[in-house]
Amino acid sequence: MGFINYKIKILAVVALSSGFFFASAQSKPISKKETSKSQSVKVVPTNLKWSERMMLSEMHRFPEAWMLDFSSSPKWTYPSAIVLDAAEILYQKTGKKEYYDYVSGFGEKLISENGKIATYELEKYNIDLLNSGNVLLYLYESEKKEKYLKALQTLRLQIDGQPRTNEGSFWHKKIYPYQVWLDGLYMGMPFYTHYTKDFVKGADATKAYDDIVFQFDSVQKNLLDKKTGLLYHAWDESKEQAWADKETGLSPNFWGRAMGWYGMAMVDVLDYLPENHSGRARIISYIKSFSDAIIKVQDKKSGLWYQVLDKPLANGNYEEATASAMFVYTMIKSVNKGYLPKSYKTYAKKGYDGIIKDLITVDENGVVNLNKCCAVAGLGGKPYRDGSYEYYVNEKIRSNDAKGTGPFILASIEFEKN
Asked: pTM score, two decimals?
């Protein structure tokens, strides 16, 4: 032991005698080589494809899935489900368990052991709240937990009681009587179709599928502008709302994301609608009409789309990320599935490249941001939203909104198939 202590003392003296060198070695500037090495260890590796880069960025920003879209507490809401739909596909594609765990954590947090859905109130009949049911369908298929089945059955009960227009379209919410919003087709119909495929058989299934297709038929009848091929944000059957045209009941503008929701609704419903259902051909024809209309208002230079689609030069309008990502996803998935001719890929790719060039930024740590997302927009309510051009362009703009990052990941996955 004495010999060892002696050696330590000798080393200490040597270190002290070369103190200047030792201190300067500790405090000298980091070399370029060392800087390069430290920067190569990134939160999000830059050598991954865009789908994983954005997914990992979202998981970094929002470590638990209920936090997605800037939620401050666990809440049953729709934006999380879009990102989680993408996480499910990435897990299947890569086998990386962190993606599955991210999805599973959402179900564990929001659904109690008795199947109660946190913060959900069926009696509000808010069609937005069906969308996260897609996550539970996936988790029940994977884990077969009884609590997910009970929660799914509760959500399916909402469809049975959801108020409808006189001809049978779902109201957007109970507090918005006689109003059909394009948003609602995405919020409710993929879940309704997927649930029917998994749990309903025979005549009941046929009735449900017919009802689902009717929702699209009704929207095409009541919300389509025949001159442009675009669809208005909403329609008030009663024509009583201040935002509604007194003759047609239509809202006054073509909001980008409303159209985006509708496009995604169509391509996602077709994943579950039976191949032999007569309504498939009609929905595919609607996708073609939809795509032709949005191509006409696609910016020729950037490839992007505007917040208010048909007024690109109006004061305050801007190229908006969520609608652009949704349109790109709708078209590229439709091409990959054979719903659209391959020539439409050119327009989808132009939009996708425009998003990456003009709307994506990457932090030094590799974290990817999607900028210029409209945070929220709607009609009516308090304070009253009048659907005017000025209303849409003055709503809050933010980065990394799940309503944009989710569709961007989904679109990236579709492009990465080729």
From this structure: 0.91
Amino acid at 127: I
Q: What is the pLDDT of residues 159-218, one digit of tens each?
A: 999 999 999 999 999 999 999 999 999 999 999 999 999 999 999 999 999 999 999 999
Q: Look at the alpha carbons of 4, 9, 14, 15 in this order and tell me if their dihedral is positive or negative.
A: positive
Residues of the chain predicted below pLDDT 50: 1-39
The 8-class DSSP code of residue 263 comes to H
Q: Which of 69, 85, 128, 183 is catalytic?
A: 183
DSSP state of 46: T
CA 354 vs CA 229, 249, 256, 298, 307: distances in Å: 23, 35, 16, 11, 15
Counting Cβ atoms within 10 Å, is residue 266 exposed (0-12), middle (13-18) or buried (19+)? buried
Q: How far apart are CA 359 and CA 374, in angstroms?
A: 13
- CA distance linking residue 293 with residue 245, whole number of Å: 22
CATH architecture classification, 47-416: Alpha/alpha barrel (1.50)
Is 28 in a helix, a strand, or coil?
coil
Contact 75, 126 (CB under 8 A): no
The whole-angstrom separation of Cα 271 and Cα 273 is 6
Q: What are phi and psi of 8, to 5 degrees?
A: -60, -45
- Is 198 a catalytic site residue? no
- Alpha-helical (H) ranges within 200-337 are 202-223, 256-269, 279-296, 321-337
